[in-house]
Design goal:
The complex is a heterodimer.
Chain A lengths: L3 E4 L2 E4 L5 E7 L5 E8 L3 E10 L2 E4 L6 E3 L9 E3 L8 E8 L7 E2 L3 E5 L1
Chain B lengths: L2 E5 L2 E5 L4 E8 L4 E8 L5 E7 L5 E3 L5 E5 L4 E6 L8 E9 L8 E2 L3 E6 L1
Parallel strand pairs in B: 2-11
Antiparallel strand pairs in B: 1-3, 3-8, 4-5, 4-9, 6-7, 7-8, 9-10, 9-11
Classes of the chains: A mainly beta, B mainly beta.
Chain lengths: 112, 115
C-alpha cells in the first residue's frame, strides 16, 4: 500500500490564482481530513470528510473548498490564493471515527 | 471545546538523558489522546495513543506516556535520548463522544539532542 499520497510536493502561486491540492489513500479509509501547519501554530483542521459525498468544516475553512466523490480521493481547492495561505498542507485518513490518523508527506505552498 | 497545551516549544537534552515532553489537555468528555512525531520535511507519524484502556501507554522507539486524569496530563517520556529522537512532537486530543470527529493538536515541542 502507498498509504496517503499528496501532490504536488511544492507549489508557488501568485495572489489570486487558483489550484487544487490532491490527496489520495489506498487503505479504504472512511475518514479524511486536511490540515495546515504554520510555525508555532501546530496543525489546524481545514475540512474533513466522514465518507464519500459528506464533508464538513474544521477550524479554519475560509478560502478553501473540498469535495469527496470517491472513498480514495479528497482534493482541496484554493479558489483565489492569498499570501495568508502560505503554509504546509497535510492530508490524513483514518479507518473509523477516533482511530489513528495516517498522514501524507505534505504539500508546501508559497503564495506571492 | 477541547484544547491541548504543550509546555515548552523547544526542549534540549543530552544524549542518554531522560526525555520529558509535557502535554495538558482539556475536554468536556473522556478523551482519546495521541502523540505524533514529525521528522524534518516529513509528515506526522503516530508514536502512541490512549483510548481509555491502560493509563500507561507504550509506543514505538522506546517512548511511553501516562494518562493522569486528576492532572489532565499526558506527558511523553523516554528513559534515554538518542540522536535519532531529534524531531518535533505533537500532542493531540479527540473526545470520545459519538458526535465529534475533530482531532485538536498542540503547538508542538521541538526536541534537540546534544551529543
Amino acid at each position: 500500500n502507498a498509504g496517503v499520497t499528496q501532490t504536488p510536493k511544492f507549489q508557488v502561486l501568485k495572489t489570486g490564482q487558483s489550484m487544487t491540492l490532491q490527496c489520495a489513500q489506498d487503505m479504504n479509509h472512511e475518514y479524511m481530513s486536511w490540515y495546515r501547519q504554520d510555525p508555532g501554530m501546530g496543525l489546524r483542521l481545514i475540512h474533513y470528510s466522514v465518507g464519500a459525498g459528506i464533508t464538513d468544516q474544521g477550524e479554519v475553512p475560509n478560502g478553501y473548498n473540498v469535495s469527496r466523490s470517491t472513498t480514495e480521493d479528497f482534493p482541496l481547492r484554493l479558489l483565489s490564493a492569498a499570501p495568508s495561505q502560505t503554509s504546509v498542507y497535510f492530508c490524513a485518513s483514518s479507518q473509523r471515527r477516533k482511530e489513528t490518523q495516517y498522514f501524507g508527506p505534505g504539500t508546501r505552498l508559497l503564495v506571492l | 471545546a477541547q484544547s491541548v497545551t504543550q509546555l515548552g516549544s523547544h526542549v534540549s537534552v543530552s544524549e542518554g538523558a531522560l526525555v520529558l515532553l509535557r502535554c495538558n489537555y482539556s475536554s468536556s468528555v473522556p478523551p482519546y489522546l495521541f502523540w505524533y512525531v514529525q521528522y524534518p520535511n516529513q509528515g506526522l507519524q503516530l508514536l502512541l495513543k490512549y483510548t481509555s484502556a491502560a493509563t500507561l501507554v507504550k509506543g514505538i522507539n522506546g517512548f511511553e506516556a501516562e494518562f493522569k486524569k486528576s492532572e489532565t496530563s499526558f506527558h511523553l517520556t523516554k528513559p534515554s535520548a538518542h540522536m535519532s529522537d531529534a524531531a518535533e512532537y505533537f500532542c493531540a486530543v479527540s473526545d470520545s463522544g459519538a458526535g465529534s470527529y475533530q482531532l485538536t493538536f498542540g503547538k508542538g515541542t521541538k526536541l534537540s539532542v546534544i551529543p
